[in-house]
Amino acid sequence: MARPRRRTTSLCALSSVRSSGLQGLPRSLRACRRSLLWLGCLLVPLVAQALPSPQEVRRGFQPSETYILSREGELLQRLRTDMQVRRGQWVALSDTSPALRLALLVSEDKRFYAHSGVDWKAVSAAAWGQLWHRRTRGASTITMQLAGLLDEDWRASNQGRSVGQKLGQAVAATQLERQWRKDQILEAYLNLLPFRGELVGIDALSRSLFGKAAHGLDAVEAAIAAALVRGPNASPEVVAQRACGVWQDMQAWESRAAPPAADCGAIEWRTQQSLRARLWPASEGLAPHWAQRVWQSQREVAQAPSARVTTTVSAPVQRLAVESLQRHLRELQGRNVEDGAVLVLDNASGQVLAWVGSSGGLSQAAEVDGVLAWRQPGSTLKPFLYAQALQEGRVTAASLLEDSPAHIATPSGLYIPQNYDRKFKGWVSVRSALAGSLNVPAVRTLVMVTPDAFFHQLRWLGLPLRESAGFYGYSLALGSAEVPLLHLTNAYRALANGGRWSEVAAPRMPRTPQPAPVGQPVLSAASAFIVGDVLADHQARAATFGLDSVLATRFWTAVKTGTSKDMRDNWALGWSQRYTVGVWVGNASGEAMHSVSGSSGAAPIWADIMAGLHARQSSRAPTPPQGVVRQAVEFVPASAGQATEPARQEWFLTGSQQAQFHVPAPQRTPEDAASARILRPVDGTILALDPDIPPQRQTLQLQASRDDVRWYLGERLLGQGRQLAWPPWPGRHVVRLQDPRGQVLDEVRLEVRGAGVRGAASSQPSSIQGTRQ
Description:
Blueprint: H1 27-50, H2 54-60, E1 65-69, E2 75-80, E3 86-87, H3 98-108, H4 120-131, H5 142-150, H6 163-179, H7 182-192, E4 194-196, E5 199-200, H8 202-210, H9 219-230, H10 236-255, H11 264-276, E6 283-285, H12 288-300, E7 308-310, H13 315-331, E8 339-346, E9 352-356, E10 374-375, H14 382-391, E11 400-403, E12 408-410, E13 413-415, E14 426-429, H15 430-435, H16 439-449, H17 451-460, H18 469-472, E15 483-484, H19 485-496, E16 500-501, E17 520-521, H20 525-535, H21 538-545, E18 558-563, E19 569-575, E20 579-586, H22 603-613, E21 628-636, E22 648-653, E23 660-662, E24 678-680, E25 685-688, E26 700-704, E27 710-713, E28 716-720, E29 723-726, E30 731-738, E31 744-753, H23 760-763
Parallel strand pairs: 1-7, 3-5, 21-23, 25-31
Antiparallel strand pairs: 1-2, 2-6, 4-5, 8-9, 8-20, 10-15, 11-14, 12-13, 16-17, 18-19, 19-20, 21-22, 24-26, 26-29, 27-28, 27-30, 30-31
Helix pairs in contact: 1-6, 3-9, 3-10, 5-6, 5-7, 9-10, 10-11, 13-22, 14-16, 14-20
């Protein structure tokens, strides 16, 4: 810290300091005093140059805490960033309790307001005591102690201060008294004084030992603080004894008479409790994980640490997200769910408006940041898949996809995707498949796009996939990859911005307004618009979620939910005209939840936050970009009575529109009257049980070519008839078809894998069966 040169005129006037109180000293001691004063004149110019001003000391004070502020200037989080010492904020003298000031004066410097830096009465008493080998209190004043705190040359070593150090400290104290006011000296002393262990300054001491600010210290607490000045690391018993003496001196000072008898036992108990207390946590506030990210960002760019950092997070939005997450998780108590995370992004700037990493006190692992944790996203990757298929011209929003049993060959076996309800809808449009989060149509779409192309598309959207496309296979359509909420929410923000992706903005609030970043086009604006229109379609979603779904907001929003395998992760991600909101619900330990899907776990939180964000502002549907056209469409069944979707207005990429879509006729099951055989399942089938789905709802449909047959699993009779629903269990099985006389007509071998089968994970094909909406 650069210090200006001080004026040194008339500095040797030190020799004219009044010698009141020293008249009783021997003449030799008075002569020694004069010699020391004249010797001090030689040091005065150097001391004057080294002494800082009160303003310089205040500016150079560095708290060990960093205050993370919101964009509005409100305190979001207090975070300890200096692990060497513990300093609080600089406390003005007027903000300290009168009891504390009195305790310091009666304990350290009773004539503080009378002397000019050196208490010559105390010096004479100390010298007289040394002459007669009597133990007396030291002569160091508060001003002299402050001089030692400001300049390490005057500080005592393990062997105490040398004569030169004492002389220099005395000269420095005299100069401080000439340049500083008394209140400035006492204020700096209180803020720079080491108290106990790592605690430096009255703010750190008050908050750590007494759990309050310095202005709230009572007489006993002030006496304990003053007792720590003389022996910061003394034993509790010694500190208590000194505190009791200080308290008695305080009473005597105030009453100007004999003090009442002190209850030293009570003071000792308070001292013991206070010295054991650690009432000042290292971090507290609304945004602990956000504060860590801000601090890490500062360190990465090698910026000098700042005591107060203004960030992009909005305090009202942060409070809304925290309260909504905790309230809804309390409603889910008893269903083995305790953690969650929320991220709110501004669509235009990419700035983080809310960052909630955990549920706080509801969590057993509150330190885990759910915004950065790697989790399986489930069905929330489907919008990107359909956007890519639309852009490549492989499908339109009205194209028909078959939702029926599919057997896809993979290097590790047959991949058989299933829907959550184990029911198939037949031929459905792309709009219905995406809005209803049907799995089989999504996998069929991925077959057209190819896993490699979709993998690279997700990478371009900023999703940090850790494995290769071949590792995930076709299960990538159903969210088998692990991604953090931060990157997934930002990928949805790209859909909100017309397919243009840009990084999340830096945590610190820019000092000057900056234009919105122009992202790179990852998806066409036309395909992003159509996907957003589908995800905002309440009617298309009604078949799965119902017309009264929590996702049906009163203003325009587009949203997608998802649930991963074993019901370990719930997701709800979507956007409005201005905001993109991502919500994750689950357990930091990875433990499965009990019957909590994306629509019942994360979706209510997402809807609650969106409602709060738009309580006073509207959200309008985006303007159709160039390259899209609206066309009336109808779906023509191949045969009478075949279910179809109603006619509607549909969006198309320009040049791909058509007015009619013919629903293919249902495939007829071949029958062989002469010899019965098993039509379903095929030999070599590998099934994977989905822990997301209740066991009673997971059945395998057995189908034969004749009615007069019986089904056996090994030697056990399962039932009879052309069709039979069998609830499978893990293991390798042989399913036999027999006639009424017991003759074996056909048999197939199949394997059922489940979460409870050891070793199944290593040989299981890349698949996620029946991921939920």
